[in-house]
Amino acid sequence: MRTPAPAEPPAADGRPAEADGAAADAGPGPGPERTRGLSRVWRSVRRSAGRSAWLRGRAGLAGLVAAAIAAGAGLAAALDGSAPDGRSLAVDTTACGTPAAQLPAGPLAFSVTDRARAAFVSVYLTDPDKGDVYAEIPWLAPRHTLPLTTTLNGGHYAFRCVFSDGTVRTSRRITVTGTTSTAVAGYQPLPDLDMTAPVNAYRRWISAALPTLLAAARTLDADTARNDLRAARADWLTAHLDYERLGAAYNAFGDFDDAIDGTAEGHPQGVDSPDWTGFFRIEYGLWHGQAASRLRPLTRRLVSDVSSLIRDFPSEDVDPGDLPLRAHEILENALQFQLTGADDYGSGTALATVDANIQGTRQVLDVLEPLIRPRDPVLLAVIDQDLSRVDADVTAFRTPDGTWTPLRRISADRRQRIDGDMGELLEQLSAVPNLLAPRTSA
C-alpha cells in the first residue's frame, strides 16, 4: 500500500487541475494535497472515439481549471481579466458582482476578478431556489482573475461569493432564456457532516477486516517457524492481499503502514537495509533463496506490527477527505507501482495485488454510494462497468490452482489492454474527489 504524495486540487469537471495544460494564475491559497503524478500516464492512453465523445458530452460538473503549475516552469502568466464575450464580474466583500440580468441559453463564459484587499473568495454559479451549483471557482486570490465557464438551460441563476473572512454575498438573479441540448447538470453541494456516515461505515469495515489480516500473518509466521518455505510463499500472498484491500485507511495507519507494507525505496542500503520490514521485505527473502531462520524474525515482527495496529486503530482518525481521494488513488498507485512491476520483489503477483486493489476500491465506492448517486448516478454506472472490465482483464491471468501469471510472461498487447482499460477507469474515478469535495458554504 502506497502513501500518496500531496495532491493537486481537481478541476471543477473532475479532471486533475493539470489536465488543461495552460495554467491560470489563481494566486497562492490552501488546497488538497497532490497525488502521485500519474495523470499524464493514464491520460495519454488512447480511447475510442465513441467513448471520448460521450466523455466530452457528459456534464456532471462545469469545466473549470482553478489553478495549474507547469512542470519546471512556475506559474503561467495571469489572465488579462476579460471574458471572451465581455461578461466580466468584479467581486468584493460588499457585492458578488453585477452580472447581466438576462442571458441566452447555451455556453456562457465569465471573467471573475476578486477586488477584495485581502480576502480570498470561492465563487459559485447557483440555482438560488434549489441550491444546485452549475460552475465554480474553488479559490480565487485577491487582485487575481480567473475564467468561469458553463452551459446553461433556461432558468434563474445567481452568483454566490464566499470570502475567507466569513463574508457571504449573492448577486442579483440572472434569467437565462431558451434551451440547449448540452446544458450541464447542476450538482448538490456537499456539507462537511455528510461524510460522517461513510467514514464510520468504512471504519467498521476496516475493524472487521483487521483480525483476518492478523490470522493470515500468524499462518505465515507458523510456516517460517517450521521451515516450510513453500507454504510460506502461498500464505504470504494471502496475507499481503488481505492488507492491500485496506487501501483507503493508509493515513489512519500512520507509521504502521511503512512497517507493514513499506518498500526498500528510501532505505540507505536498499534491499539489504536491516531496518526494512514488512510484506515486501519478506517477499524479497522468500523469492531470493533466504533461509527460514533469516525470515522468521521478519514474520514474527509482522505479527507484532499487525497486532499493534489493531490495538491502535480505534484511537486513529480517518480523514473524511481521504475516502473520496482514495477512490481514485488506490488504482492510480496500482497503475504506477504494480502494473509497471516497480513493487515486485520476486513473487510475480502484481496482478493479484491489482485485483485486491480493485476490491478495495469497490469497498470505498460502496460506502460513498449514498453521496455519489444523487449527485451523478451516471458516473456510478460507468465506474462499475469500467471496474468490471479491468477486473476481467486482470483475473484472466489467475490460473486454476490460484496462482497468478507474472507480468513478464504477459504479451505486450495484453498489457497495453490492461493499461488502457485502467486509464479509462481512472478518468472516471478522478471525478469522485471533486464531486464529494466539501462545499458547505455553496
From TrEMBL:
<dbReference type="InterPro" id="IPR018976">
    <property type="entry name" value="Imelysin-like"/>
</dbReference>
<comment type="similarity">
    <text>Belongs to the EfeM/EfeO family.</text>
</comment>
<feature type="compositionally biased region" description="Low complexity">
    <location>
        <begin position="10"/>
        <end position="27"/>
    </location>
</feature>
<keyword id="KW-0449">Lipoprotein</keyword>
<feature type="domain" description="Imelysin-like">
    <location>
        <begin position="200"/>
        <end position="431"/>
    </location>
</feature>
<protein>
    <submittedName>
        <fullName>EfeM/EfeO family lipoprotein</fullName>
    </submittedName>
</protein>
<dbReference type="InterPro" id="IPR038352">
    <property type="entry name" value="Imelysin_sf"/>
</dbReference>
<keyword id="KW-0732">Signal</keyword>
<feature type="region of interest" description="Disordered">
    <location>
        <begin position="1"/>
        <end position="39"/>
    </location>
</feature>
<dbReference type="InterPro" id="IPR034981">
    <property type="entry name" value="Imelysin-like_EfeO/Algp7"/>
</dbReference>
<dbReference type="Pfam" id="PF09375">
    <property type="entry name" value="Peptidase_M75"/>
</dbReference>
<dbReference type="InterPro" id="IPR050894">
    <property type="entry name" value="EfeM/EfeO_iron_uptake"/>
</dbReference>
